[in-house]
Design goal:
2 copies of one chain form a homodimer. Chain A is α/β, with parallel strands linked by helices. In chain A, 38% of the residues lie in helices and 16% in strands. Chains A, B: InterPro entries: AB_hydrolase_1, AB_hydrolase_fold, AB_hydrolase_sf.
Chain lengths: 281, 281
């Protein structure tokens, strides 16, 4: 029997239990040889992915969005460090019966991608790391202050503050992304709880201050690194550091863009990601 | 009557006279709204473009390869500076009846692209600049020494020295590029003359030492900048400088690659260039 396939707007939230904890996830696209698992940014849930990107990628593979421990509709206590978050995500991937997948990590999700490929290299074919940074990145030392500044703003301005530059063009494009996040009326995810947010702030800050444990030069997988020209959350230059440290990496920078680089250019990113996943070796 | 279209291997060399000088060029692909004009690297002729790239781009547009003044089968005296070379290329484009085109400049051709968009911004819709540098780039101060080192090598090693890194993978891929350059048996171009080569060395060196005259921040066109991780000819970091100076630029870096970045990843580059030319704004 063929599995029914879905697009972003209609993919039902599904659940799987791992170690007594119920995790929420959604699948889009036809199951193929290698699914793409997507791990979200700080505070982000299943409803924070850009439908243009998910549907564009799901045309050529199965895309699986996961809420990590304690986030959105996933139960459990959110760990306060990226290492334990990465271990949890690996358990969920295993529980889904996946023996090999591609991994897209956005921001905090990009930290987890680094942890996960370091822990279980054989589980991952290719990685896409968007708006992220290597361990020890200095910009993360001031992450709590940036978050405080963002949380003082009304919701739309908060989103624009994090994901757009100050330019009208960037704000308009990221404003459109924000609109697309409400394409689903029903079966929406819960917002991240304050407890999860606090644990994530700890994980993000510790990524910049804890000792460096991952040797990026040992990553043998092809990696696509994507960043905006002016990302204050991560500092754009951290992606150049990632690119230089990972042996087989392609680096892409978009213009006049901040932490929401790939959301600002969803069609271009989708083309680049599909080409990378389908052809790059 | 529909114009006959060609692929790289069979496109006949055509000629057009401008100011009493006969220029050689080749066209592939269906004429569409916006042709892509391609300007070549130091010593390069119509036979030095990668057939995978030209045919891949020509599937979605007309691609026009031009021998600039005094190079290959084009007559005239090669200028000793990029400004005059750029003026010549503009004249050829005008003579071909083109009122708007995209421009791909590789290395020295990328200098010309900067000159040309500065001189006649209304003539160009989008630019692709591969393995190039802004005016004043320091790596060019030692260009004559690098050329001397390259010219002391046998032909295949010369090609690998310039376009590949020292890794086996890079050398194998660029060796394959070199093989593809002989896909045409007949109607081949003349090699660049020693006179043209000397003038080009002057133009390349002067790009690094002459006063900066072009204000890259005034370029309003979308620009795709492509470079390899380890380009000694131009210094890879010069492409980051270009990206930071040009307001609406997308930057792409490939791994373990030198001056032949796009030749080493021809399928990936072709996808990225087509997506950029078709969709990026």
């Amino acid at each position: 029997m063929t599995e029914k396939t879905f697009i972003y707007a209609s993919a039902p939230t599904e659940y799987i239990e791992v170690d007594g904890i119920r995790y929420a996830y959604r699948k889009s696209g036809d199951p193929g040889a290698t699914p793409l698992v997507c791990l979200q940014h700080f505070t982000g849930t299943l409803d924070n992915w850009d439908p243009i990107i998910v549907d564009g990628l799901a045309k050529e593979r199965q895309v699986i969005l996961i809420d990590n421990t304690g986030v959105g509709n996933s139960e459990g206590k959110t760990p306060d460090n990226a290492q334990d978050m990465g271990k949890d995500a690996i358990k969920v991937i295993r529980a889904l019966g996946i023996s090999k997948c591609d991994l897209l990590g956005f921001s905090l999700g990009g930290f987890l991608a680094q942890v996960m490929v370091d822990l279980e290299p054989q589980l991952f074919r290719k990685l896409i790391i968007v708006g992220s940074a290597p361990q020890g990145a200095k910009a993360l030392h001031s992450f709590p202050q940036l978050v405080e500044k963002a949380f003082a703003l009304p919701p739309k301005e908060q989103y624009l503050f994090v994901f757009a530059t100050a330019s009208e063009k960037s704000r308009a494009k990221i404003g459109a992304t924000l609109g697309r996040l409400f394409i689903r009326d029903e079966d929406r995810d819960k917002n991240a709880s304050m407890e999860a947010i606090k644990a994530q702030i700890s994980a993000l800050t510790r990524w910049g201050t804890d000792p460096v444990t991952i040797n990026l030069s040992k990553i043998t997988q092809p990696v696509l690194i994507v960043q905006g020209s002016n990302d204050e959350m991560m500092d754009s230059s951290a992606s150049i550091d990632l690119y230089k440290a990972i042996p087989n990496a392609v680096l892409v920078f978009y213009p006049d863009s901040a932490h929401g680089s790939f959301n600002q250019y969803p069609e271009l990113f989708t083309d680049q990601a599909n080409s990378f996943l389908n052809k790059f070796e």
